[in-house]
Amino acid sequence: MGRMGRGWRVAELRQRGGVLAAFVAACCEDEKRARAARRLGARLTGFASADRTAAEEAVATLERWADDLADHPYRPVEPRPDEADRQTRDHYKDIQHERLTVAARDWRKGARLSLDVYLSQLSRARGLDPRVLEDAYYLYGRGTMALDLGDRATAVREAGRLRKLRDAYAW
Predict the structure, then answer these.
(1) Which domain of life does the UniProt lineage start with (predicted)?
(2) Which residues constitute the domain of residue 112?
(3) Minimal CA–CA distance to 25: which of 15, 11, 36, 10?
(4) Is 99's pLDDT higher than 80?
(5) Same domain, 111 and 51
(6) In the predicted model, what is the mean pLDDT of residues 68-86?
């Protein structure tokens, strides 16, 4: 499994484990287990890509504890795939951010600002064809997702495509 694959897997585990830890801590009648779930949930938020095995073990423990509360009306359900991806992406951004150098963080901020400015200029353009605006939102989404996932080449390409669209329609 590549570095991104491990990071993504840990992000999934952090997301799922956080939900389960909060559920077990709030709904378990055993105070000792509730405290252990809170500690486990707190540890999960600090796990990085290299901690995949430990994160899998922690989530497996939390799932066993949550299964003991299977009949509880507030037991969390698995999120829909699109929602799970959004939540995982948020956790993955945190994992990525922790590994970045200051120069890389600064570059990402600048690239994000460029995407924001280009989209803003396009969205304020009068009489813009709705399809062009739809393309702008699509390129903006691809660019920001590339930034979140640490794919610099794609982020640069999408920012360039969005700039060309801006140059063609917003000036």
Answers:
(1) Bacteria
(2) 100-169
(3) 36
(4) no
(5) no
(6) 87
Q: Give the C-alpha separation, 1 to 12, whole Å.
A: 15
pLDDT single digits (tens) 21-70: 999 999 989 999 999 999 999 998 887 777 888 889 999 999 999 999 98
140: left (phi over 0), alpha (psi -120 to 50) or beta: alpha
- Pairwise CA distance, residues 46 & 8, whole Å: 14
Confidence of residue 4 (pLDDT cuts 50, 70, 90): low
Last residue of a domain, one of 67, 91, 109: 67
Token pair for 39: 């500690």
Is residue 1 predicted with pLDDT exceeding 70? no
Q: How many domains does the chain have?
A: 2
Rounded alpha-carbon distances, angstroms, from residue 8 to 140, 150, 157: 22, 12, 23
Closest by Cα among 151, 150, 154, 156 to 99: 150
Residue 77 lies in a domain: no
* Integer Cα distance of 29 and 39 in angstroms: 16
**Could you identify the residue written with the tokens 């702008």?**
136
Nearest-angstrom CA–CA distance, 26 and 14: 18
Burial class (CB in 10 A: 0-12, 13-18, 19+), 32: exposed
On whether the CB atoms of residues 65 and 77 are closer than 8 A, the answer is no
